[in-house]
Amino acid sequence: MTKQYQALSPGHTACAGCGELLAMRHALQAAGPDVIVTGATGCSEVTTSGYPDSSFGMPWIHSLFENSSSVASGIAAALRYQKKQDKIKVIATGGDGATFDIGFGALSAMWSRGDDILYICYDNEAYMNTGVQASGATLPGTSTTTSPSGAVEQGNMMPKKDMPAIAMAHGCVYVATASPGYPIDIQNKVKKALTMKGPKYIQLLSPCVPGWGFSTDQAVKLGKLAHQTGLYPIFEAVNGQITSAMKVPKPTPSVSAYLELQKRFKHVLKNPQLLATIQAIADANIVKYGL
Amino acid sequence: MKNKISVAAGTSKNNKTGAWRSYRPEIDFEKCTGCGICESVCPEPCISNSHKINKMGKEVRQIDYDYCKGCGLCAAECPFKAISMKIEKK
Lengths: 291, 90
Known about the structure:
The structure holds two protein chains of two kinds. Chain A is α/β, with parallel strands linked by helices. Chain A has one domain: Rossmann fold (3-Layer(aba) Sandwich), CATH 3.40.50. Chain A contains eleven helices and eight strands. Chain B is of the alpha+beta class. Chain B is built from two helices and four strands. In chain B, a hairpin with a 5-residue loop joins β2 and β3. Chain B is elongated and about 60 Å long. In chain B, 33% of the residues are buried. Chains A and B meet through α1 and α9 of A and α2 of B.
C-alpha cells in the first residue's frame, strides 16, 4: 500500500461535525501537494496549527487576520523571481470575516494586481471563532451575539454582501461557489481554478455546529439544503460570465426546511413577515442564476 | 538569534481527539458496500479503506477511534445504513 498524500491530518481541534474543515479538506486535497497556502486568522487556522503541531500536508503560512492575500502576493512574487510559478501554485484562504470585512482591502488589492492566486473563502456566515458575531456575510434575520433577536430587532438587519459579484467586478478569471453537501463539486472547482492564470475566487459554505446551532451530524445535509432551497446559489463564472449553475429540485423546498434545523433562525419561523423576506432572497437567487 | 517557527506536516496526529466522543460509530462489516461516502464526509478525516473483503466482495471501510470525535456524519450520510451510533462505555 503506497502512502497517500493527505492534505489535512486528523488530530485537529475543530468541533465534532465541523463543516468548515470538511470543505477545507476537499479543497486542499484537490489542489495536491505542489501548493503554498496562506491562512487568515479564524477557525481554520486556530484548530489546525496550534504550535508545535500542524494538520496540513503542504507548506502553510499564517500571519495576521487581514493579510492572507498580501502574504500570498509576496509568495507569488518570490516564485516568479525563482521562475517556479508554473510548478507551484499559491492559494490564499480565509473565513468570511477575513474575506468580507477585515481583509477586504488587501484582497481587493490582490485582485487588482492580477496575481495568479486562488482565494478560497470558508463562508460560515459570522465570526464563529470569536463567538458568533455578525459579519458582512451574515444573512438577514440571523440571530448572532451582536444581533440577537428580541422585542425590538429580529436578528441581523443587514443584507449579505454579494462577494462573488464583487470578485467578478474585479476581473477575476474564475469565480465559483460550492458547498460541503457536494464534496466532488468542491474538488472539481478547485482543480479547474488551478488550471487558469490570474486571480480566482471560490466561496465555500461552511456549516458551523455551535454557531448555527444544529446537531453534529447535519453539516452535509444543511450544505445540500442551502443549495436546494435557493438560499446559497452554487454556480461558476468564467471571465465575469456565469457559465453553469447547479439546478434546484422542482418543486423547490421552502426555506423553512433549511431554517428549522438551525437555532440561529428559531425566531424566524414564528415571524411570517421575516420568513417571507428570507424566502424572497431565495426566490430572487433562483431567478437571477436560473437555478 | 534563530527560532524554529516552522513545524512538520501532519504532526497534529500527536493530538488524539478520540476522548471527545460520547457516541461511537460502528460499521456493519457485512452491510458495507465500500462506496466511500463516509470517508468523504468525515471532517477529521479518520475513516479509511481497510482493504478487508466482506461476503459481498466489497472493501469495507474502517474507523480510527484514536481521532473519531463521534459527530455521526458518517452514520447520517451512509446510504445503506451500515453505520450505527452506539453510546460509548468505559
